[in-house]
Design goal:
This protein is mainly α. It is built from 6 helices and 2 strands. The chain has a two-stranded antiparallel sheet. It is elongated. The N and C termini lie far apart (about 90 Å).
Length: about 160
């Protein structure tokens, strides 16, 4: 039995692995692009919603303690949204560069390298802006619950 098991392993090891065909590569690339695009859009949506809600309902929801943290939060969320929009635009330019340069017989690699740098910087701005904005707007140092504010008003000096 040991010899049969060893011979099966040797036979499997001797067979060359199949290279993926072009259809599977395109499917994998399409899946990765869809995931990336949804990630960017989701961060834009969440940052926009946090920005809108914190601006609209700021006085009604909580008493401000440190207003500058709200400003940092709003700036961070705005930077996050702008970074997301810049990423989407950069990806569009990246893909269109193949068509743009190919018909001229040029490579376009330098142009795509610059776009890739811009995409990565936009991603960094989007994520850092989101984290800074989210933490600043929801910081316990920036707001107090309304119940505390009401208690302070009700207590005699």
């Amino acid at each position: 039995m040991a010899l049969q098991t060893d011979s099966i392993i040797e036979d499997e090891a001797a067979q060359p692995r199949k290279k993926p065909n072009i259809e599977s590569l395109h499917r994998d690339l399409a899946f990765a692009n869809a995931y990336r695009q949804e990630f960017i859009k989701a961060l834009i949506l969440i940052a926009g919603a946090l920005f809108a809600l914190s601006v609209s309902f700021r006085p009604e929801l909580r008493a401000l303690v440190r207003e500058e943290l709200f400003w940092f939060g709003w700036i961070g969320l705005s930077v996050s949204m702008l970074g997301g929009f810049a990423q989407l635009a950069a990806w569009e330019r990246f893909y269109s560069s193949y068509q743009r340069f190919e018909h001229k017989g040029e490579d376009g690699k330098g142009y795509r390298d610059r776009i890739t740098l811009a995409r990565r910087m936009s991603l960094l701005l989007q994520v850092i802006g989101f984290v800074v904005g989210r933490r600043s707007v929801r910081s316990r140092r920036s707001t107090l619950p309304i119940s505390r504010r009401r208690r302070r008003r009700a207590s005699p000096p």
